[in-house]
């Protein structure tokens, strides 16, 4: 996942119509679980993405006193800090119909 494609999500939490969230599943609790699982996936993807980009700044054998401020590293950190939070990205994906989900029981039953 590239973080740039997730910028259409709001940066602040706001009230959302429960009916609209529950519309796809018919059950608000199921919808929340699906959104929460997607938010965890997004958080993990973002973590891997930033760690991968930060590896470029690691210098082996660095001593704490030798570390200096790197403008590119600071800008990269600020970029990720300013992204919408994973739960807001997941909620926006849900509302936009971009999340695919399936029930494990149905998948197991089809294999028997």
Account of the 3D structure:
It is a single chain. The chain has one domain. It has helices spanning 18-22, 28-54, 71-81, 86-95, 104-111. The protein is mostly helical. Helix 2 (28-54) packs antiparallel against helix 3 (71-81) and helix 2 crosses helix 4. The mean pLDDT is 82. It is elongated, with a radius of gyration of 19 Å.
**Class per helix and strand makeup:** mainly alpha
> What integer value in Å does the Rg equal?
19 Å
Q: How confident overall, as mean pLDDT? A: 82
Q: Provide the succession of SSEs.
A: HHHHH
What's the short story on this structure?
By secondary structure, the chain is mostly helical. The chain contains five helices and no strands.
Helices and strands, with pairings:
Blueprint: H1 18-22, H2 28-54, H3 71-81, H4 86-95, H5 104-111
Helix pairs in contact: 2-3, 2-4
